[in-house]
Specification:
The protein has 275 residues and is of the alpha/beta class. It has a single domain, classed as Vaccinia Virus protein VP39 (Rossmann fold, 3-Layer(aba) Sandwich). It has ten helices and seven strands. The protein has helices spanning 6-16, 33-52, 68-76, 89-101, 140-150, 167-175, 191-197, 203-211, 234-242, 246-260; strands at residues 58-62, 81-86, 108-112, 125-130, 151-162, 216-223, 266-273. The model has no long low-confidence stretch (mean pLDDT 89).
Amino acid sequence: MKHNIAQEIKEAHDRIAETYAGGIFRELNPNSYSYWSIRIILENIKYILTSYCNVDGFLLDAGCGNGQFTEMFVKNFDIKKVIGVDFSENMLKVAKKRAREKGYEKRVELVKANLESMGFEDGTFDVVYLFGVLEHLDNPQKVIEELVKVCKDNGIIILNVPRKWSLAHITFMLFGQNPRDWGTKKRSFKIWEKARYYKFYTFGDVKGMVSNTNKCKLLERIPVHYIHVVGLASVPLHRLAKMEGGTNLLDKLDKVFRLLYRIPAGEFLVIRKYR
C-alpha cells in the first residue's frame, strides 16, 4: 500500500513554524556556515534569474514555509509580486508576521493550498521556485506537472533536488532525525522509516519526471546546495566556517566540487516551459 506522508509532514511543519530556519528575526553571524550557505544559494538564484528570464514579473514560492525565501526574493530582486503557497497554516501565519514586521507585506501574497492543485490559472507566473519540498512529496510527478502548468510560456521553473547517495543522504539516513518528528526530541535509527519522509533523488529520477511533463525542457544543472548537508556531514563545514578565513576556504571548496561535479548535498535544476 502506498505510504501517505503529507499529513504527518504537515503536523511537523506546524510544530516548527516559529523556529524553522532560525525563526523570523535571528541575525546570522557572517562567519557562520548557515550565513555562507544562504549566500551561495542567493548567488545561484541571481545567476539563474539574470541568465534565463525577466526578473520583474510574478514569482511563485511553492512550499514557502515561514517565508525565508519569500523574503530573499523581495529583498534582492525587483519582482512585481511574490506569491507564497504552503499547506501549513502555522507556517503561513509566521510568513505573514515576517512580511508585516519587516515591511514588505504589500509585495507578497500568501496562500494556503496543496501543491498538487493550487487553483491558479494556467500561465500565471514568470518564475516558479521549489526549494526544500521535493523530498517530502507523496506525488512529485504531479507537483512538477502543476508547477509547469501555472508557469507562463517561456518562463522558468527552479527545482532544488536533494541528491541520492550524496554525503548528505548517507549521513542523514544514519544519524538524521525523522522529519515527521521535527519539533520533538524523538530520535530514530530506522533507516527505511526515515526514507519515507525525506526522499533523495538520482538525476535520472528527476530527469524522467521532467521528460514525462509536457511543454518543458531542462536547461541547466547547478551543484551544490549545502543547506541539504545534514547529519554528521555538516559538522566539519560548520567548524571550518568559524575559523579565521573559513568562509574563503568554503568558497574554494565549493569551486572544487563544481569543477569535479561532485554533489555532497543537492543541486538546482533549471527548467524552461515552452509554447
